[in-house]
Amino acid sequence: MWWVLALILAAGVIAAVVWVRGRVDDPVQPHGTPRDAGCCGQHAVCERDSLLAAVSSRVEYYDDEELDRYRGRAADAYDDAEAEEFRSVLYTMRDDDVPGWCRSLQLRGIELPDQLRDEVVLIVGEDRAARTHK
């Protein structure tokens, strides 16, 4: 009779361990979210739709070598004059080059200034919508 009680207790412990392990949140992936569900929202441009992200990790410059001096700087650490340097590069390129430019900045360790994020997301969104509706 005691072995039945021990068996039930062991099953309860195993069930509790399995339940607790399933409840622990992965800091990289929230519980219940598949890894390929889409953009994580941390990037100015979603890498899921970017062919450059999947194909190449080679850095491509967009006549913006001067931006390399901002490598390692946080996105919220730029003043308006520095953000204007990024803006001048952004508005001299074609809209369909913007996702590649953002990928290039990522590969180079350069964060896009917070002052430009909304503009970049708007440009990329409009370009994707225009390509989708052709």
From TrEMBL:
It comes from Candidatus Avibacteroides avistercoris. This is Phospholipase. It comes from the Bacteria.
